[in-house]
Amino acid sequence: MEKIGALEAYIRMKEPYLCFLYALVGALENRSWLDVAHHDKTRLLIELDNLRYPN
To answer: Among 23, 31, 34, 16, which Cα is nearest to 1's?
Structure first.
């Protein structure tokens, strides 16, 4: 997962919950998924949309 990153791993899953994205990021950054969800939620959702729907 470190090679492709949390966002790409999340996209490759079939209909995952957002908390799983936060858990992936937290695992890579050695943080709690709750901390990620609280502090990085907006940034991750924007990045996710940009990957899913590039201009």
So the answer is: 23
Per-residue model confidence as pLDDT tens digits over 3-13: 888 888 888 88
Q: Rounded distance, CA 8 to CA 52, Å?
A: 9
Q: Count of CB atoms within 10 A of residue 6's CB?
A: 23
Identify the pLDDT of residue 13: 83
Q: Is residue 31 within 8 Å of residue 53, measured between CB atoms?
A: no
Whole-angstrom Cα distance, residue 55 to residue 5? 21
Average pLDDT over residues 11-39: 91
